[in-house]
Amino acid sequence: MRFSRSIGFTALLALSVGCPKPVETVSFDRSVQPEPLAKPSFTIPSAQSATLSNGVEVLFVENHDLPFVWLNITLKTGGATDPEGLKGLASVTMDMLNEGAGELDAMAFSDTIRRLGSTISTSGGTNSSAVSSRMLTRNADATLDLVEAVLFSPRWDEKEWTRIRKARKANLKQSAEEPTAIARKVANKVMYGDSYNGRSTTEESLDAITLEAMQSWHSERVVAQNALILVAGDTTLDAIVEKLEARFGKWTAGEAAAPVEVATIQPEQTTLYLVDKPGAAQSVIQGRRFVDGDRQSEDYFALALGNAAMGGMFTSRINMNLREDKGYTYGARSFISNGMGPAMWGVSTSVKTATTLDSLKEIKRELEDPNGDRPLTDDEINYVRGSMIQSFPAKFESPNYLVGQRSEMWVYDLPETWLSDYIANIEAPTPDEARQALAKHLDPSAISMVVVGDLATFTPGIYCLGWATAHLDREGNPIEAPEDAGCPESAPEEAAD
Amino acid sequence: MTLAIAFLATLITPGLAAETAENDEMELKIPYTEFMLDNGLQVLLSEDHDVPTAFVDVWYHVGSKDEVQGRSGFAHLFEHLMFQGSENQNTDYFVPLQAVGASINGTTNLDRTNYFEGVPAEHLPLALWLEADRMGWLVLDEARLANQQDVVRNERRQRYENPPYGDVWVTLLANIYEEGHPYHHPTIGNHEDLEAATIADVKAFYSQWYTPDNATIAIVGDIDIEETKALVEKYFGEIPKSETAVERKQPATVELTEEKVIRQERDVPLHKVWIAWPSPAFFAEGDAELDILSTSLVGGKSSRLEKRLVHELRIAKEITAYQASSELSSMFMINATAADGHSTDELVAEIDKVLAELRSEGPTADEIELGKIDFEVMQIAGLASNYAKAEALQRYNHYVGTPDYVAQDLARYANITPETAKDAANKYLPADKRVVLHVVPKPAEKSDSQNNETEAGK
Predict the structure, then answer these.
(1) Which of A16, A173, A180 has the CB atom closest to B226's CB atom?
(2) Among partner residues B153, B231, B238, which is closest to A26 by beta-carbon distance?
(3) Average pLDDT of A151-169?
(4) Which residue in A13, A397, A427, A474 has the most chain B C-beta atoms within 10 A of its own C-beta, making it the best mutation to test that interface?
(5) Which overall architecture, per CATH, does domain B31-236 show?
(6) Spatial distance between the Cα atoms of A6 and A13, rounded to a whole number of angstroms
(7) Does residue B14 have a pLDDT over 60?
(8) d(CA A470, CA A273)
(9) How many CB atoms within 10 Å of residue B170?
(10) Using one digit for the tens of pLDDT, what is the confidence trace for B254-297?
(11) Banded pLDDT at B370 (limits 50, 70, 90)
(12) Looking at domain A49-248, which CATH architecture does it have?
């Protein structure tokens, strides 16, 4: 029984059996927030596992809600190790796997998969790549045959590569006009220079990539040693393992990809990196700083709590100030993102052009206050803690969440207890530890702050904020400052607001 | 999850699945309980005990189509105010809900406004208390209005003005629907109207539309039906119904009299073109046919437009087509991006050839079969979460008057034949009555003013 902590409520319950009757009078005090019902129990679902004869691990999450099976073959290798001059290689190679395979050219392949009611997609990310499929349970065999062909016998048709290369170049052109895409790209360049995430695919690198380069990447990287097979849905472990063994059991072991090297550029002082976008309706602001350590570091959860209270949620300080108090933006958040190497902290918003300077000042204040005039309170820390803990079970509604987490755990070598200890890890840090972690890792005087907007509209004020400035093009390369750059002696900061 | 999938409708896919022989008697269903409070609030409940969460989804049957002249964007602006506090929870609604780990949001479109929160199951009373409080006792004041006017105007800038091509939808609506039609203006509205909204407007809108008899609440998840009935009764039962009945606008056929060609030069990187037709309303005759026709055109690499423009001629980088279904009328749209070195005029010429073939020959039986598979799988995969099921119940309820419509919805597609699809292509996608919008990069020398030419009756 999950009823009732309030007596009035129990009485009403009796009325409601069958067809509900109208309530004659209000029998409760609306000003009092209701008590929760009894809390249902929840156990984190777990994955079953098996190993194919060649050593490839299979993880399986059984779920018979819908007549689908979802497959994800994760490869622990991606664009982070693309050779100099061939940036984009992993990503376009994965694209080309889905452009016809075995007997079927791209068009016939697309038809065949549609007819089965299935989908197959391939993707190459920074640290991992994947072949994924959703199949109707009854068409699992036929679909898995196609996945096998995608992995082992792609066609490498020159004409498809010519088309994809042209489309990729157009995508580059397109993102060069999108203010948020520009800001993210420039921020990566500022933080990683020419390593890891700092390098971008270019027209030149696309021109330099050949089918031969893709084929070598495919034969070196798309190997069993780099693979984890994850399955969720409407089948059983025995049934799926048998199907997988028949198709992937003889997959060549190969060699596991070398670990990724990550070089980082930690800012020593706050610098505004200005990218001009004349006519922009808003200014996109992206601040960045590396925070020591990754998901396995000692301070990770304490820092996560501190950041969440400062800016990680709708109700956190940064959004409540910039959106709900000042009305400068539709939304503002801070976040911590994890890849290889140290985690990166960021703050992100788009603000009305005329409020660019005020927004930057408010962001500065929100970063300084937790270590200064307005420390995060115990209530603020415990609020986000409660939110993070209580939102956890809902994530498991789709079996694909667990699949995604297991894939992530494998790619980033997270401990087996990553999920089972998650709640305990969020519960552990004291408010003091959260405050200290934020103070220790997030020096508010040393942030790289990218601003993409209509520079003329906030010149000269932008030069009078007391921060260093640098001018970059849309690729993140340094360019000369405009002639009117600099804070005029006679134009105090206030005049520019 | 509790989704009674006793079968996949016959069309997945004869020939592929021998085990579908006995399909005819089976039915796809979202099990639910329905009742109505005395004040007219309609309630839909569905149990699903997979995870200990409950999804609360309130639809108010009002959208931007119901706005008055000079107040475009108001329904959406009002939606924002619904999060700003009520008499018994006089702070931002995110505060108490995010405290318990809820996912929260609201959305407004042309036809309706929804508010939803996925809460841990034990916090269902909190969610209902809050939804009832803002339905009955919303706090409205100048400061909250002024703040959310700024926020919504920033939303407009962020989503429609700063991204390249962001305002295409606005232009299409304005040209498909003439001045005065409820869909002539977009849900986001324009800056002048948003700025002009007064607290008196807000109060009038609230009392006209935000009444229990103009709302439906769906609750899906780890709930006990009887217990939930009692909670709904407790929190919503005393909210008075409206004093005057609201008039629901009715679907009407929209016909263009000519082809309207609009050429815009903008700060955009690529040459793109949109071709749009007014089309049958959501669930009206012809709506499902146009869904299926969109798959004949762009459903895969061998579909007609993709094959011809992207793969054979290679004049397009990409091409999409879909039926954007709405309550009073819909819009069928084709959008193509030119490959480097090709013009949008070339694209339109080639699209026209493909459409002419489709009109004269009609789609093949195989194309129709593939389209049916696409839609059936999409519909079933689209019922995977409590959120999706709540929205499906609400959508059917709002648009066809019964939440119990999944099977009939699938049947709409099952009944399509090459002939009915061919008829729809001829009837709804004529070459000479449509809007063609070219959006191309501004030539280097013109840097300031935006160029916008309209040629009629080309």
Answers:
(1) A16
(2) B238
(3) 97
(4) A397
(5) 2-Layer Sandwich (3.30)
(6) 11
(7) no
(8) 5
(9) 18
(10) 999 999 999 999 999 999 999 999 999 999 999 999 999 999 99
(11) very high
(12) 2-Layer Sandwich (3.30)
